[in-house]
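cron nightly-structures :: item 1 of 1
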Amino acid sequence: MIIYNLQVKKWICFLCIVAVAALFNAKTVFAADLVSGHYISSSGKTIELAIDIQSPSPASLIIEQYLPPGTKIASSQPKLKKYDIKKGKAKWLLKNVRSGKMIVKLQLADTLGKGRIQALLRCKDPATGGFVEMTVTP
């Protein structure tokens, strides 16, 4: 009977460890995959950032595009929320985003060289309430 109780306790401990590991792993994978992005075009006069939003989608998405300081933006789609030309920081606050793919496009006044940009995608994970950030580089 004592040996049986020890075996049961070992199995219960093992199952608890597996369950906790699975919960941590599932949370990390979900948060990492919630929002992702890559550049379609990262030099010249057109900058295009493709963003993939998983379901359930976050309520809002903050996009920060970093350009070389002094870069002039001719237009953007969607419309910029804010642009600090001295810092080269463009910012969007997108509300009511839906799962799927979207493109953020910037038309620049002048040609931009390769490898001089990066973006930051930030949102709140609807499952955990924690903030998720992803840096996108060319």
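cron nightly-structures :: done
Residues 2-34 form the longest helix (33 residues).
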